[in-house]
């Protein structure tokens, strides 16, 4: 096997590119990323690692803007992601110079997935525990959700695995028409508190119904 896993262009006898598979495994072990498509917006939410007290949190972002209407959220190795983000930005600028128009999401996506494949989703997750989050999204996703509903669903999905609540959640909203807008931490805190309050109320109601039964 070691003869076939040293280069990205050498196939194993059974047709595998091991370097590509290793890259995909690194993604599965990274901080979780959630994407939810609403009626007029797309919400990207990521698990943000807790920063040191003196560290500037702007230097550890997991969501990067690559064009006026496109953002990339990544899981896995930050150093590798930085290379891909820079590549995507260069492709966007080159496209604008050549075509004199904004590149499509499909055009950018084909350059950034490690396996060279991409597909469209109504909601999806990648990174650690992504299988559990995907199941949660399948059960709770609603077609044509409003922006706040999409944000709330993304946060609820992340809270399934994020222990520190809103402190470790980063969210960006991409609206129809193309503007990329990071969600302020205060708004994230407010929504997280609301979700936790709803959960607590549901638990209390469940406890009361059991005791009365």
In brief, what are we looking at here?
One of its GO terms (cellular component) is nucleus. The protein has 213 residues and is of the alpha+beta class.
What would you say this structure looks like, in words?
The protein is an alpha+beta fold. The chain has one domain: Aminohydrolase, N-terminal nucleophile (Ntn) domain (Glutamine Phosphoribosylpyrophosphate, subunit 1, domain 1, 4-Layer Sandwich), CATH 3.60.20. The chain is built from six helices and seven strands, in the order H-E-E-E-E-H-H-E-H-H-E-E-H. The strands form two sheets. A five-stranded antiparallel sheet has the order 5-1-2-6-7. Strands 3-4 form a two-stranded antiparallel ribbon. A hairpin with a 4-residue loop joins strand 6 and strand 7. Helix 4 runs antiparallel to helix 5 (147-159) and helix 5 crosses helix 6 (185-212). It is globular. The protein starts with 17 loop residues before the first helix and ends with a helix. The mean pLDDT is 83. This is Proteasome subunit alpha type. Belongs to the peptidase T1A family. The 26S proteasome consists of a 20S proteasome core and two 19S regulatory subunits.
């Amino acid at each position: 096997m070691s003869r076939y896993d040293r280069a990205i262009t050498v196939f194993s006898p059974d047709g595998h590119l091991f370097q590509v598979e290793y890259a995909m495994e690194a993604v599965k072990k990274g901080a979780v990323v959630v994407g939810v498509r609403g009626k007029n917006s797309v919400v990207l939410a990521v698990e943000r690692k807790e920063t040191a007290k003196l560290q500037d949190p702007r230097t550890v972002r997991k969501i990067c803007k690559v064009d006026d209407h496109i953002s990339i959220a990544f899981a896995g190795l930050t150093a590798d992601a930085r290379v891909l983000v820079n590549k995507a930005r260069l492709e966007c600028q080159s496209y604008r110079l050549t075509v004199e128009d904004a590149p499509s999401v499909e055009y950018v996506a084909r350059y950034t997935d490690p396996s060279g494949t991409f597909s469209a989703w109504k909601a999806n997750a990648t990174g650690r525990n992504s299988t559990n989050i995907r199941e949660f999204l399948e059960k709770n996703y609603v077609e044509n959700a409003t922006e706040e509903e999409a944000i709330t669903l993304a946060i609820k999905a992340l809270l399934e695995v994020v222990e520190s609540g809103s402190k470790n959640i980063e969210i960006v909203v991409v609206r129809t028409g193309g503007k990329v807008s990071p969600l302020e931490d205060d708004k994230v805190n407010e929504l997280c508190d609301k979700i936790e309050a709803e959960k607590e109320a549901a638990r209390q109601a469940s406890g009361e119904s059991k005791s009365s039964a």
